[in-house]
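It is worth pausing here to work through a concrete case rather than discussing structure prediction in the abstract. The textbook approach is simple: state the sequence, then state the predicted structure, then interpret. We follow exactly that order.
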Amino acid sequence: MSRLKIAASCLALFAPLASAAPFDPNNLAVLRIGTGAAALSSACTAVFIDEYDVFGTLQQSIALPTATVGDQRRFCLSGTATSEGMLTRSADGSVLLVGGYDAALGTASVSSAAGIPRVVAVIRQDGSIDTSTVFTDGFSTSNFRGVASDDGTRFWLSGTGTGGGVRYIAALGATTSALVSSTITNTRVVEVFEDEFGPRLYVSSQSGAFRLSSVGSGLPTTSGQALSNLPGLPTATTSPYQYLLADYDFGVSGFDVLYVANDDATGVQKWSSVGGTWVSNGSIGVAADSYRGIAQYADSLYVTGRASGVGVIRRIDDFTGYNGALSGTATTLVTASANRVFQGIALTPDPPPPPAVTVADVSVVEGNPPGTTTMTFTATLAQAIADDCDFSVETFDSSPDATATPNVDYTPISLELSIPAGDTSVTFDVPIIRDTDIEADEVLVIDVYGEPQACDIFGIDTVLGTIIDDDAVGPPDISINDIALFEGDAGSTQATLTVSLSAPAPAGGVTVNYSTADGSASTTLTDYTATSGTLTFVAGDDSETITVDLTGDTHFEADETLFVNLSDAVGGNLLDAQGQITILNDDDLPTLTIDSPSINEGTPPGATTLVFSVTASNSPAPGESISVDYASSGGTAASGIDFTAVGGTLTFTHGGALTLPISVPITRDNVDEDDESFTVALSNASNAGIYIGVGAGTIIDDDTAVVSIDSVTQAEGDSGTSSFGFTVSLSVPAASVREFVVHTSDLTATAGSDYVGIPVVPGQLVQFPPLNISQPVVVTVNGDTDVEPDESFEVRVSPVAGAIEGGPPVLATGIGTILNDDVQIDVAINDTSVTEGTGAGTTTALFTVSLSAQPPAGSPLTVNYATAGGSATSGVDFSATAGALTFSNGGALTQTVSVPITRDNIDENDESFVVDITAPTANVTDAQGAGTILDDDTAIVSVSSPSQNEGNSGQSPMLFTVSLSTPSASTLTYVAFTGNGTAIAPGDYIAIPPSATQVTFVPGDVTESVAVQIVGDNVVEPDETLVLNLSDQLPTIEGGPTIIAFGTGTIVNDDVLVDVSINDVSVVEGTGAGSSNAVFTVTLSAQPAPGAPVTVNYATAGGSATSGTDFTATSGALTFTNGGALTQTISVPITRDNIDENDEGFVVDISAPTANVTDAQGAGTILDDDNPPTPSIANVQVTEGNAGSVAATFTVTLSNPSAFAINYQASTADGTAVAPGDYQAISGGSNNVAFAPLQTSQTISVDVLGELLVEANESFVLELRSAGAPTVLASASGTINNDDSATLSIAGSSGPEGNAGLTPRQFTATLSNPVQAQVQVSYATADGSATLADNDYQAVSGTLTFPGSSTTQTLDVNVVGDIEVEPDQSFVVNLSGLNAPAGVTLGTTSATGTIVNDDATSFSIAAASVTEGSGSNSTLSFTVSLSAPAKDPVSVQYTTVDGSALAPADYLAANGTVTFNGGQTTQTIAVSVIGDSLVEPDETLQVQLGNPIGGSIANGTATGSIINDDFAVLSINDVTLPEGSGNGTTAFVFEICSSNPSTMPITVNYQTGNGSAQAPTDYLFASGTATIPALATCVTVSVTVIADNVVEPDETFSVTLSDAQGATIGDPVGIGTILGDDDLIPVPTLDPRSLALLLALMLAIGMIGIARRH
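Step two, the predicted structure:
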């Protein structure tokens, strides 16, 4: 930290700094109101900018000005207004801004006081403050709150009151503002933030539906701007002040995070922009924080607030970034001391960037050998700086921009450069190697690099040096290219042709003329804009371009061509003199679509209009139109009930709208019902195809039957029950039955005891029939005689199917309030306070005891009371009091208790006691009254001011008396210490330090004394003073103790003085260089004492003369000794000048510490000897311009400066220029030309009027006179140079030829500007496609004459009528032989006369059909007919349009042009049809005609029918499978197939039938309908076969097909064969030996069994 800032931190505890240090970057600037010396009020209060680091350490305090100096105004804010002082930082970070008031400190109610100007304070990075911007036209008598700026030079303002809203000030130092937005007139904080879309203006407020809004778009400066609340932010309840926008996520466009400081329970809020809507990320804080300002550094937010009334600065860390939750707590960094508050906060301004270095491109002519040419570059610094600007340069030989070769064309360099401190430029050279080669100009590149600290080189782009070749070559060849491009649909497309030279243009350059010419494209048909001119190739140039504007359209037409012809080449040879432009058609046949709109139904009465839009893809051709029929049809919406049926025809015209509306009236109602729909269908389109032909209209129901229930309040009664009748209502009727369930819920009333509850389950059903809107619900309430508060319960309405865990959802709630009607008496005593008083006697403290109601008759109520001590002592501070109060029926409800208070004059704390009450028969709601005895005695300390002779030697005591105004109840201790006045310790007195002496007053003591020892001397000197200071603080306090009283002691001098004086002097100033001397004499009245010389100090001081300008400041000392001279002189140099001024004065002040100065000041007078100045004026020339006015500015110069303001009268006099036609005369009044003191040059402007008249140069005279005098002191000539020219052009003419006779065709020749003199031009006709030989028109020639100032003339050419069908024809009228003054030239010299054919033929197309076929393609042949033969070829374009047939599946789309040669009347269009085997309905397509040339379209649409020739034949297969065994089944799956696929589903019935297999023993009977889906060929059916173990032969059953739809049956029966898979059990056989063995074994087993039994 700098030493200056350390000092600032210490001093900030007591007073603001007189001057400020520059801000450190990334610190916090906090606006503070109040010095801490006094309590804050609504009066004008001092304002400070406190600079803190991010840890909360104070760096410095900057006071805003409290006095006006020049144009810098005072600045203050209200000490208690909580919405002012919202400090902001400009968008570019250069300055801080705050708004306030231009008023004196202490001005009462400064925010609302009338007539107080509002002022804008601009605080710069260097700590300086500008308060020159002031206004009175906004925020009158109310709060001026905020200022924002993009760059610190213009301002947007926020506030309230008269002229409130958002205002704008255009410039620093301005004195007026303009209203930008008054959408709301109570705005808070205005800010400018800039993202990738540019800067935008925002404002916070708490008015209407606006909380945080953007203002207009960009940075608006004009009135009427709308506010737009940021989407997703609340429009109510919040109370935002300062805010900031941040861009955390580069994937989200624009700002994506918002922080807001709120003066409500949300504290600091965080929002993120998600999908264009701001979404809450949480908040930190409570309402008591009262946050106002917010700033951000890194991941920390810094906020200011008035936490529970105390100013705080807090830090909130947020590391979660975009769309992360804000959590944690706020850390307090700074808490304001008493009587100070914090308001706005911002980051400190950024330091200004270092000045930039620029290096300009350079060109040099190469030169011829021997030797080199020097190419010199200059590096320029934007401004001089205190340090060297060091960087490096070198030739960048490998740059892609470099075409020159190092060491061949130039010598490479690599240099270290420095722009010295105080300078602004440095140069460096590149040697260019001369040669005689004929070559193109070459380029070398300079790279500037380095890392300078004092300057910025990083804005330097590529620096180029161009070596211009100067070696001769022969004339180059000239050629022009051809191009082709699409015309576009609208506006103009630029076709750019390149004219090239075979070699760069030599010295002297090359020129060639060019002009466009029609091909099949024509300017008459507005296909392009004709152009002509001259191309100029400067030396070294080898190509130029010509641009022709092509006119875009949406007409379907053939490609067209035009030509650009070159001629009259100078300096080159024409090699290819014609370029061709091909305009490629890019338009399709128009198609029509209808949209499907929706609209809210609306509420009655009346109807809502739903608008369908029918759009044509492009406009019909000139002379044609597109028409289409439309009609509505009902859907879920019913015609005549929900909407009104419509039908009709829409027509699109050439050049007209491409979208036409169909309006359908929608019937409004207020019934809650489903959305409904209907359709509008298009049909019978002419000259267009229908792309989307049906639009669905949706009527959105906007009626919602919202359920509600009312609330009921009535008395409970003393017994029995009463009925509370609630009404459940629907906001609007519903179209269907609506059911709800109601149940009750306890609040303070309890179900069962206070009322009969309705349980949640099952609840009570409430049913609304259709269109019914109210139903009753009754709750029974129980009466009682209990004294109790009013009680309440809820009746809740829920949906029928709403039972969920935790209870059903509640749709509406009604409150039943049971009013208690039983009485109770409350007793209370109040608190009181009383001022103690002084003197003898007592003061009375009165307490009031109150009853809430009358006691019952015959039952008086007794209240007992008694006092008790607190910090006050009974018998000392008050008299103990006790007793009883009795309240009777009909008496007062209040009585008082009096307590005597003892008065005294002791300075002590406030003291307290209580009065306690009891009431056995009442409810005591406040049983204790607090009594406060307010002390009104203050012990004020003072110090006496003694005086005493010093004496000649030794020390003597000077006694100071320290007194208390009244005794104190406690011991008071003060610290006494001395301070220098004019007496200085220890020479004049012995100092008492702050820690040496304490003055103690024991209770009852009122005086003490302090002795200061005085040092005697025999020095002749003035009386001297010292100060005894008194403090109630310890001396260890930082900065020293606070002084609460002081006394001044006077040391009376008792020694004798010598008198000293100085004389006055006058001197002539003189002229020229150098100076004169004014000599003053200093005189002593007597010799000084031996050994005691007298020293006289002297110093000059300015008066009307200024030190350093009029004289040289001089100071020093003269010494007079005993026996020396009694006089000495002082010389003051006087500065000579040539300024005419008054005599001026200055003084020489003297002082003598050991003498008596009888004349302490010598007056010096400088006598002026300069003549008054004389004026002169310089002549002026100005170009007049074509409109408005241009200022002719004359410079008036004085021969020498003057110290006085000089005013001259200026006036004009006509010359060849005449006022007011040529210029605005000035004359008359005084002060036309005013010179401020010392100003020698001034300007005055005369407005010269622009015009278009071609004329000679003109002049007038400006004359200067003294005010009111006739003599011309100076004059000058003003010359008006004519800059007008005129072009003479002729325009074409077009019209029908007629069927017979002559029709005149008028041509107009026009001068672009009027000409004073007469203009003549010759004209003559010439053949085009119309010829004299064919008797198409009659030739004319002659001369057109334009009288002076006339701009148009006409001529007629007769056209011969006929009845032939032929193309439009043209001839031309050419201008030549111009006879006109200079400045008049020929423009368009050739005009085309177009003979529009009016003999018609028309095109028609007939329908066609063809059988589709199944293998190869077939052809649909459409016949196009011409109603009458044409003389020349005519044509029409065609295109196919899908119907039920679709391209390319059913046919091949086709388009093209049909041409009829002369005499032909029919042509054929062939469309290829795709053969297939698909079974389908007959299909259709259309062929539409468009863009006819040479005729019109009578019937432009024909239908082509594709006849289906495919059929579907069904068959079913046979299935053979094993039967299976056990108890299972086997599925026999039969496949039913079609011979061909079909576009529609095919159905057929099937049924099983017995064969040798029988149902249901061998299989299960099956029947049904089988469906083959569209485009499929097969479907399966399954029959279940039953398995067994029976040995049997194979068995069969059948599946028979019948009743086929969409096909015929070929093979109707499928056979299922069940294969028997069961075998007989085999019987085993034994041979005789095996049988004998088996019998023996059986016999043995039997014998074993017998033996076991025994």
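Step three, interpretation. Helices lie at 3-11, 1632-1653. Confidence is low (pLDDT under 50) at residues 1-19, 1625-1630, 1647-1654.
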